[in-house]
Specification:
Elements: H1 36-55, H2 62-73, H3 79-85, H4 90-102, E1 106-110, E2 117-121, H5 123-147, H6 152-171, H7 174-177
Antiparallel strand pairs: 1-2
Length: 178
């Protein structure tokens, strides 16, 4: 399919009228809807915004809190292990670690093999966790109370299973996926 922008529009507004083109969609009605990725991301964005807003007075966001807790679980271990724990790629992890190191929350050192890097919480990082943890507990509890305590473990299990299915689908050869 080729989309040719009209001359009176720039690249951003050339597709302002969706009736001007159609995107071919699978003809089969057997494709499950809605999109798994979009659905999970939408929910993730909403939940993250709630946690970020709650944690703002503590001076951090939910990603930083998760990273600090992962470092706490893996003290002195290679940052690659922390990245695996959080299902993050190394680049994203290092980008998130840099301001926390700058602010004195983490101490980064050479790993045991000399090639990797390891992180440890500093006293300041522990203080940040002490301030953030009660806020996280209140927010987590408020969300789960509204969602339903009994339903929460099942959702966690289903999300872990969905992640495993996605990893499996992503690692299978393209010929098997069509």
């Amino acid at each position: 399919m080729t989309i040719t922008p009209r001359s009176d529009n720039d690249v951003y507004t050339s597709i302002s009228n969706p009736a001007e083109f159609t995107i071919p969609m699978p003809k089969s009605t057997s494709v499950p809807r809605p999109c798994a990725c979009t659905t999970v991301r939408r929910a993730s964005r909403v939940v993250a915004r709630v946690f970020d807003a709650a944690l703002e007075p503590a001076g951090l966001n939910i990603t930083q809190l998760a990273l600090l807790r992962a470092v706490q679980r893996h003290p002195g271990e290679p940052l690659l292990r922390v990245a695996e724990d959080l299902c993050m790629d190394r680049t994203s992890l290092y980008r998130a670690v840099t301001p926390m190191q700058r602010d004195g929350w983490l101490k980064i050192s050479a790993g045991a093999d000399g090639r990797s890097r390891a992180a440890e919480l500093t006293r300041k990082g522990l203080q940040v966790l002490e301030v953030a943890d009660p806020v996280w507990v209140r927010t987590q509890t408020a969300i789960i109370e509204r969602f339903g305590w009994a339903k929460w473990p099942a959702l966690v299990g289903d999300l872990e299973r969905l992640a495993a299915c996605a990893r499996d689908a992503g690692s299978s050869p393209a010929s098997e996926r069509t």
